């Protein structure tokens, strides 16, 4: 019943910016936590950032802190990942995820119940 659909990926040069979108449906948004993860070839899926749906609390991986920002548009039931100052090491498939249990924001993949299909981000040098 819950569906997450990412979009906005593409090819960008190092130093550029990109904004990813995650359209969510079927969630009780007020009680949901939203996360962003990424997976590069040959690597494990890793935490990028997370936020409460209200936007009152956010958490970011050290590797993206200060460069990436999570936000949401309540009228569109959409969360965003704004990525600035992109680096080649940011190249990965990016996934959004939803935690419907709440509690604490988490970097653990197992905390998230639903996942989108992913969108490719490629940063060239």
Descriptive report:
This protein is mainly β. It contains no helices and eleven strands. It has strands spanning 3-7, 10-13, 18-25, 33-39, 46-52, 58-60, 68-73, 78-83, 92-99, 114-115, 119-124. The mean pLDDT is 93.
Short key terms for the protein model shown above:
125 residues; mainly beta; four-stranded antiparallel sheet; 0% helix
What is the global morphology? globular
Instruction: Give me the count of strands.
Output: 11
Radius of gyration: 13 Å
Helix/sheet category: mainly beta
Low-confidence stretches: none
The sequence of SSEs as H and E is: EEEEEEEEEEE
Strand content: over 45%
Biggest sheet overview: 7 strands, mixed
Topology readout:
Elements: E1 3-7, E2 10-13, E3 18-25, E4 33-39, E5 46-52, E6 58-60, E7 68-73, E8 78-83, E9 92-99, E10 114-115, E11 119-124
Give the gist of this structure.
The chain is an all-beta fold and 125 residues long.
